[in-house]
Amino acid sequence: MSLKRYFTWLLSTGQIRYDPAKAVKLVGEERIPPRHLSDQEEQALVAAVTEKGDRRDRAIIVLLLHTGLRARELCTITRSQVRLGKRSGTLTVQGKRNKYREIPLNATVRVALVAYDSSLLRPSHDATPLFLSEKRHTQLTERGLGYLIKKYADRAHVNDLSPHDLRHRFGYRMAKTVPLHRLAQLMGHDSLDTTMLYVQGTRDDLQQAVETIAWT
Prior knowledge:
Blueprint: H1 2-12, H2 39-52, H3 55-67, H4 71-75, E1 82-84, E2 89-94, E3 100-104, H5 107-116, H6 142-155, H7 163-175, H8 180-187, H9 192-195, H10 203-211
Antiparallel strand pairs: 1-2, 2-3
């Protein structure tokens, strides 16, 4: 790439008449799929926050696992963005490049949010943050969210877990049952190429696939 740029500059400035690097093809870069959180790891994480954490922390982890929110999106949620009903619920999110999307909330998320704050059942125009820092009582920061996830991941003996890994967990699970274009809508992807990462099989998935044609 450096040589290509250099020879392009030489050609544009008239120092050479022919670009020898033009015919050289670049090596394709393989996109590595995001980390795949296993069922056992998810269960251990939820158990850790249920046993050792408070209702706020449990609501945060459940929300990440069941909506695929980015860390910044979760930290900036206000109460007015949450709409809860008896059998349905929605969350309006401001994503990248100030694009809004509406995410449906399933029963698991609704129960966790109501347990955290039952006033969310009433429609509100309150623009205060939904999740506050425990010490400063200000909006939860992305760094604070990272510490929170790490605390419960350590207790669950799950290594190197970040808030974004919980987003990936949502993507992998939904990719098994949801069409690609709908998953992209839920996760706020501009390109289906990004969403395609979640349909790539894990090592276990591929092992199970080839076992289907094994001779017994």
